[in-house]
Design brief:
Layout (H helix, E strand, L loop, with lengths): L1 E7 L5 E13 L2 E10 L1 H18 L4 E5 L5 E4 L1 H7 L3 H4 L15 H11 L5 E8 L5 E12 L7 E10 L1 H17 L5 H15 L3 E9 L2 E6 L5 H7 L9 H9 L3 E3 L16 H4 L3 E6 L9 E8 L2
Antiparallel strand pairs: 1-2, 2-3, 4-5, 4-8, 6-7, 7-8, 9-10, 9-13, 11-12, 12-13
Helix pairs in contact: 5-6
GO molecular function: cyclic-guanylate-specific phosphodiesterase activity
Keywords: Hydrolase
EC number: 3.1.4.52
Length: 305
């Protein structure tokens, strides 16, 4: 018999041991020999590794571990969730050929190759590809694990991925909106462009922008909406209970309506065409230092599903 047992020393402290019990026949008489070896350090190391693996498997960041040839030797659950590859499918695949999209610039790929040959931590925003071909912008961080005996040699690389697609979309949107506001577009063209640009990064919704002038709604732009939409709301006074936009304007905070057919904010506004325009809505106020002075914008997101 050979197993690990926790034994108690004379002083009362506990110790993990590798305990073995052997049966010995000496001149027809049966004897038993017991041997115990202190394995507390090995048990503690295994427990530490178990907890580390538990932490890696339950983090929301995709993680892969590479060997010296940049082959994947370990993945976590978040990796499978983000990219769609099972651990067996990813095993022995070579990074960065595996996971990085061909849509990355040559300069970005060159920087990655240079960093991978080094022995320092680095981070890069890269376009990655999932198992089904969907492209995802990721913040890729690479942490080298150096050889314990020779710190000039990299033993493994730990690579983490964070999906920043939404973050990049918002950054690009802010840049494009600022460019539109400072361009030679007409006022109406600028409003339409802003709505369309938001719609591009929010599939399944329609977007409109409404100005608040003298406490009344003045629809600015609503590409994709029926013409009657703007006419219906033009000049309506804002106030609590005045549908979503009017309520949003006076509260100065976002207003979400899941179902306008049952929400009390929409009870007084049962225009026959309203139900065909949208089923739910999110209104977000864009405040300025001169509230209700004609410089306020309200974004409306229309659920088209």
């Amino acid at each position: 018999m050979n197993r690990e047992l926790q034994l108690e020393r004379k002083d009362g402290t506990q110790v993990w041991t590798s305990f073995s019990l052997s049966k010995i026949d000496v001149d027809g008489r049966i004897h038993y020999m017991a041997a115990a070896r202190d394995v507390s350090k090995e048990v503690a190391r295994r427990e530490q590794n178990r907890l580390l693996l538990l932490a890696v498997n339950n983090t929301d960041r995709a993680v892969v571990v590479l060997d010296e040839q940049r082959r994947i030797v370990q993945t976590n659950r978040a990796f499978t969730s983000m990219f769609g590859y099972g651990a067996d499918e990813a095993m022995n695949q070579v990074f960065p050929d595996f996971l990085l999209s061909s849509g990355n610039s040559d300069d970005a790929l060159k920087r990655v190759e240079e960093h991978l040959r080094g022995s320092r931590w680095f981070q890069e925003e890269l376009l990655t590809a999932t198992r089904n071909g969907r492209e995802v912008w990721s913040r890729v961080s690479v942490n080298p694990v150096l050889n314990e005996r020779d710190h000039r040699q990299t033993r493994n690389l730990v690579v983490t991925f964070v999906d920043i697609t939404e973050e990049r979309n918002i950054r690009n949107l802010e840049r494009d909106v600022l460019a539109a506001l400072t361009s030679r577009m007409t006022f109406q063209e600028t409003g339409d462009y802003i709505c369309q640009r938001i719609g591009n990064i929010a599939p399944g919704v329609l977007v409109s922008v409404c100005r608040i002038v003298d406490n009344r709604m003045r629809p600015w732009a609503a590409p994709g909406f029926p013409k009657e939409y703007g006419e219906y709301w033009d000049g309506v006074a804002v106030g609590e209970g005045v549908a979503s936009c009017g309520t949003c304007a006076v509260r100065g905070e976002p207003v979400m309506v899941q179902d306008i057919s049952t929400d009390p904010l929409w009870a007084p506004y049962k225009h026959p065409d309203v139900a065909s325009w949208f089923s739910g809505m999110l209104d977000i106020p864009c405040k300025t230092s001169r509230w209700f002075r004609g410089r306020d914008v309200c974004f409306l997101f229309q659920d088209t599903e």
